Model the fold of this input.
Amino acid sequence: MEDFFRPNETSEQLCARCTNLTYFDCTEEEMLWCFMGPRRLPLLRIVPITVFLLMIFLTGVVGNVAVCLVIIRHPAMHTDTNYYLFSLAVSDLLLLLFGEYFLLYYSVL
Done:
């Protein structure tokens, strides 16, 4: 972050320098940092995000597997509505298994 600042320059001055259309004095990396922020989040933000996403993942997997097992094991639950709920649970489980991993991966980077 400090690599982009000139001596005694604040982040507001950097963004003003990168958004001035009459005198544009900014590199591409400086402009990207100004508009998009730093490339990596600080550790104090990564840890709560990771814990929150892991809690969502674990409760989602346990809940959806439980729904699937209850519908499969009890013959009284073999109704059209429960088959629909079963397909929703499988769909949610697949989304958790494949989507949550990439969300966690890209949020930590």
